[in-house]
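Lecture 7 notes: from sequence to structure.
We start with the chain below.
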Amino acid sequence: MSILDQLLIERRSIRKYQTEIPPEAYLEQMLSLTATTPSSSNRQPVRFMKIASPDIKTSLQKAMEAGHERFLQMAATAEN
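Predicted structure tokens for the same chain:
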């Protein structure tokens, strides 16, 4: 099994994040690598933000959960 195969098989969705912040060098490397990845029709629709405030992170999490719930409710009532 290749390293790529192993990474894809073992990947998981993250629901709760750790509180410690990765070293700045790791963040810079991740951003550098993501800038080289392809996107649909080469549109680069992704934007990255570094959020350090725990209050803003909590607020964002609540907003995302509420949006997800609204989406599920709309999907449940849709005809198609």
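Points to note: The mean pLDDT is 85. The CA atoms of residues 21 and 52 lie 8 Å apart.
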